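User: What would this chain look like folded?
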Amino acid sequence: MRVRSTLHRHKLVFLASVALALQPSLLLAQDAGETVLDSIEVEAESDDILVQDGYVAKADRIGTKVDTPLAKIPQAVSVVTQDQIEDQKPRTLNEALAYTAGANPNTFGYDSRYDAFYLRGFPAYYSGMFRDGLRQFNGPSAWLRSEPYGLEGVTVLKGPASSLYGVSGPGGIVNMVTKRPTDEPFREVEVSIGQDNRYQTGIDLSGPAGDNDAMLYRFTAMGRKSDTHLEGYPDDKLYLAPAFTWKPDEDTRLTILGEYSTALTGGTAFFYQPVYGELTHTYGGDPDWNEFRQKQGRIGYEFEHRLNETVTLRQNLRYSAVDAELEYSGLYGAVPTRYWGYYEEKMKNFAVDNMAQFEFDTGAVSHTAVLGIDYNWSDYEAYSAVSYTTLADLNAAPMPFAGQQESNMFGIYLHDQVEWEDVTLFGSARYDWTKTDAVDASYTETEQEDEGFSGRIGLSYRTEMGLIPYASYSTSFSPNVGFVYDDPSLPDNRVADPTIGKQKEIGVKYEVPGANAVLSAALFDIDQEDGVVFDTSSGINKQVQRDLNSRGIELEANASFDNGFSLIAAYTYQRMKIEKGAVGTEGNELSATPNHVASLWGHYLFEGGAFEGLGLGAGIRYIGESYGDDANSFENESRVLVDAAVSYDFGYRNPDLKGLQLQVNAKNLFNTEKAICSAGSCYWDEGRTVYGSLRYRF
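Assistant: Here's the prediction, encoded as structure tokens.
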């Protein structure tokens, strides 16, 4: 009862504080006497799949696979909108999720090589990554990297989502929405510079192809050359993303989405750690052997055809591939001793989702039902070598085989959302069959077949005052890519068993009347069986399977008002308990999982007066204390990080300069750098970073 009463107090305090913060803005939005100018900003988002207005998302397909108002979905959903991305200028997907309730992108400190984040305490970077509604598998190191400049939004569905999306983790999924062709012409050129010799330029072009409104195009490109605060650790990238839409009539649409990108970062972001749980400021990388080169590409399409008023057919398909070459090194021992390593991996994915949507009525009850079949294939092959003598020995040695794994996944699903007056009932059911063929480093072959059912039932009700309380129960099924160790002290490994999750969630959503603002609160309880985590009892990080329980509360507010003020507020209380784990860890809390995480971001655009065209943004992020290992033998300190942004739109003062905007963003403004340890391995926060950009839209 102590936990529940604490959660209740947190909920009341948060809602009261948000209501007080919103009240002045509501009054200004409703009572301002002066004339508010129409926005002169050309919008980048297409509103094709994800419908958004400022910092507030209105509708999406993420929770139901059909266009649905987010307030009706009986499950917590958070959205990083296009406007938020533009105001905060995240460099990675991790940074884009920094102000999202339930998301923790802070576990591994500074490491631009990967987007490694947690949802509701569970890792989501292997089983929770989706792109445009299709599953995106990552290999052990060949991860499909996300470029925020190529996104028009990020939708986070919290809790199990396997009933519609198949293989996914208990914490939820993150769906990245690619920039799509727009009906209206859109042109953008942007250049940016910043510390560490960072130079970046981007272009974004879209609109009808000539005079043909049936054919739309979009081409997004970005190039970057940059150093970082780590010696010999670059952050270079080339990103090219063409997209085309063909819509011969109002019932048919075909959108083709492509990408090719290359990236060069450092091979390691680790620092020397001579004593367990203690981190030095000695960077572990060797500047002469410190490159992580990656090439990736994807090509796919989304096809939709409405047969009649009842039936709509859709097919989404994508093929993607990643080639990764990693040169890394590190320091070990009481006296720093260097080792060198090389890792090469190729990862390939294919995904296709076929579905039929049915809209019909049974008396006073309306139905939107979906029947679908999907197939996913993934394959990776890796080679790895390490030298503890000299770099020359590593270069001279043959490249040993490190493992290969091929997975075939087939699923069939059914979803029906039933609406009767102010009541909405969601029911989803799915059955998956998976087959995994693996070869380990000793060329031992294993074959594993798994199958499982997942489901969801949820109910929401819109009251007369606009509150929408809801309740849901959902499950997840997730076969795991990679190998695990039953005893980390032994070399024997095996293909991981599927991870099973079960969640109970209750919550409330509130669309503030007369304002573009949404408040939400969710209370969740998730049980996970055979979750994959790291174990360091043998002195080396090895993946093992454990049973975990996550419970907590999430509070969130998103608003964009007519007076130029936008707001994001989020608070998460969470307790991640190890139900079954290594000796001495049962009953403990999972490492690097803070009990309290809170954030607040506000942005104000002066639309009149002496400061017309000036934009000011500021945010604060609090990450609470956590444990540095699963034995709970030491703690990570809490930290407070402050971000800021200032911009000026020249078009407000001079019509000839319409669309020209100068912007400066600072992250971790007060240069807070603390160690964060996960499973006994420690990392440093990134210090202060400042970047400026000049953007022209026309």
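The longest strand covers residues 337-362. If you want, I can go into more detail on any region.
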